[in-house]
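Q: I have 212 residues here and want to know how they pack in 3D. Can you give me a structure?
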Amino acid sequence: MEGVDVGRLILVRHGETEWNRTLRFQGQSDVELSDVGIREAERVSDRLSGEQIDTIYASDLTRAARTAQIIACRHDMSDSIHYTPMLRELSFGDMEGLTFNEIERDHRDVFDIHDWIERSLQVCFPNGEGLTDLATRTKQFTESLDGQVADRSTLLVGHGGALQVLICQLLGMDLSCWWRIRLSSCSVSVIEHYPHCPTLTLLNDVCHLNHS
């Protein structure tokens, strides 16, 4: 589309943590990358080394911030990362650090995990957030960009839930569709931002993690 300013949003989920490996709800608990997660971040850094990146935004939680720093190092942008709490993961409140099975077995009197899965738009975690709270944060973030993505390449490093919700919002999808999007650790997704018409051109690409 000649003459049209096209911006690119490159979305990267953070690398693996030990809580990811053991299937624990992390939310806003500040968990470090595991050794595997660091290697994944290095692989995605290699993958993106040839990409133009003009601006980097990252969740201020350590696992996302560290992933962003590893990527930024290849672009000589380590001191230019914009950290923001608006890209944080959904807060799971009192359920953070627990597995699905532990919540179902030990905490059914205070929280029904199956009810949350079926009615995620209406249910909040005890002392945590609901999906609409997360959606409010991600919308505030995209609004804060205020047209800055036009004709630029912007890297966003965040968390599975937050990035899934952000994709739904940018593409005009119903928020309930967030469950239908899967983002693996250190996956790459790309949204090309034509004026008034964001287009998903890549989703959950992990080919760079499969190289020996």
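Q: Anything worth noting?
A: Helices lie at 18-21, 35-48, 62-74, 100-106, 113-118, 131-145, 160-170. Strands lie at 7-13, 55-59, 81-84, 153-158, 188-194, 197-205.
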